[in-house]
Amino acid sequence: MIEFYFVSFVVLFMLSCLVLEMGRPEFIIPFTLLLFMITGIVPVKEAIKGFSNEGMLTIGLLFIIAGTIQKSGLVDMLFQRLLEKSFSTKHVLTRILPPISLLSGFINNTPIVIAFTPIIKKWCEENGLSPSKFLIPLSYATILGGTITLIGTSTNLVVHGLLLDKGLEGFTFFELAKVGVPITILGLLYLIFLGPYLLPDRKSNALREVENLRKFTGEVLITKDYPYLHTTIKEAKLRSLKGVFLVSIVRDNQTIAPVSDVTILREGDRLLFSGDITTITELQQTKGLELQSCIGDDFPKKHKLVEAVISHHSPLLHKKINSTNFRSRYDAAVIAVHRQDHRLRTKIGDIIIKPGDILLLVVGQEFNKRIQSNDFYFTSEHSRIVQSIEDVRSGWYAILLLGMMIALVTIGFIPMISAMSIMVMLFIFFKMVSPREIKDFIQWNVLLIISSSFGIGYALTNSGVASFIADVLIKLTAPFGVFAVILSVYLLTNIFTELMTNSAAAVLMFPIVIELASTLKISPTPLAVVVAIAASASFATPIGYQTNLIVYGPGGYRFIDFLKAGLPLNLITMVITTMLIYMFWI
Q1: Would you list the DSSP string of 20-79?
Q2: Vertex 577: Cα angle to 576 and 578 (nearest 5)
Q3: 5 — alpha (psi -120 to 50), left (phi > 0) or beta?
Q4: Of the candidates 174, 247, 184, which has an alpha carbon nearest to the alpha carbon of residue 210?
Q5: pTM recorded for the entire structure
Q6: What would the pLDDT profile of 520-547 be if each residue is shown by its tens digit?
Q7: How many CB atoms lie within 10 A of CB 352?
Q8: Which region, left, alpha or beta, applies to residue 347 given φ > 0 means left and ψ of -120 to 50 means alpha?
């Protein structure tokens, strides 16, 4: 009984930490597992079982395969061609959403959204359209398409691996298509014909920030009377000015940006500040500083401005900007931070970075070389360009190999994990991917979260918490039949996935549905399908699914926008899923 209450308390505390963003998920979830292992609730053998699970290993291999296909630029090139002859919102959505959904059935949806978001934004800017009409549909279309096949999303593979661990028959490659295809078709019709009326028509505040910077910049000349000549920026206290930010220094017609704290000030330097115009004009009261202009006509033309969206797995998360060594780390300076479509007005150095934040940066020449794959979801500079014939050829070979392996898996000639392993080995043998690229393509943090979640699932089973929740669900839904049980499992999974990652939600729900199936004396497969679909079908909030958070800032969205567009789609998906599962499997 003590174990029951202890596990219940720890899991609830874990969920609270995740919701309140008290730490990174890849720290909170493994720490929870470690606690259960130390207390003996989960034996070491069960605690590490998730790290060798077939579904988890397959996900790791698929990261490599998707990355190899994506780096060729073929997918991006196809997408840009689809946009070329488009002329209206509905026409664009009709052309791009079906191919995106189909593609996400075979390639992880997160890299698709990361790759296409800057392409759509750039196209919208060139054609005078608002990206807010397209980015939520982009995210939703990839989520829907991921439900079509076994490899469409990591959640499907996780549930498949859990079934195999229980000695049960896993999903066939297209088994989920019985539900995935109908909800994708209906979902796309909804997004194309009703979506434009529910979505806002606005630019993101971050984009408006770039447009307004000219109005809030000032240029100051250093004369021979300046008392801090030949001292550093830090010693001159130019970093601690309230309301303004030192963007760059113009010296001998050369621009120094970003500006380091150790940069030495010289006579004749022209300092470009951005921020409160009143504070900028007050700078001329300082001896040796002469205000040249309150409007920086050369800004931002001579400065390389970049927007960067912080990823779920960035090493910058939950740290103050001034403690990240941002300038030396990336050769870039943060001049504004936007969160939930609002600029944070506190001192930039004191801002604690969170997932989805948009950083407006002034960058140097080394910026693109220094950023790592997990640092940002994308930057406004991101655009995939086919660099060589070899890239194109490698891309086509990768797609051909993927098609062949899918065919072999579908007819049952070879298991999924063997097919994906062979593909990766062939990629390495033919030098289609390098060891360094493999390391970058694999999202290690995601695999750590999924693997650790398996052990937490065992804790729920061993302590009796899973049985208790299953009993409660049965008592509440028994008078209404099996259909009500399916509906309750869908709703509970959907709630879990809003609180944590979709794969972790699926793992925690799995022992509950196993207990339900045992009590009701039905096959666990239909309930496992419910969990797989419901864990992915998160549309109503920007935090429920990773791709929603990726488009949140760049689309200029507010929380209410996801509710307005996502709740109807959530309802459509839930109704169709529960009805089809009841028809096909029960």
Answers
A1: TT-S-HHHHHHHHHHHHHHTTSS-HHHHTGGGG-HHHHHHHHHHHHHHHHHHTSHHHHHH
A2: 95
A3: alpha
A4: 247
A5: 0.78
A6: 888 899 999 999 999 988 898 887 777 8
A7: 16
A8: beta
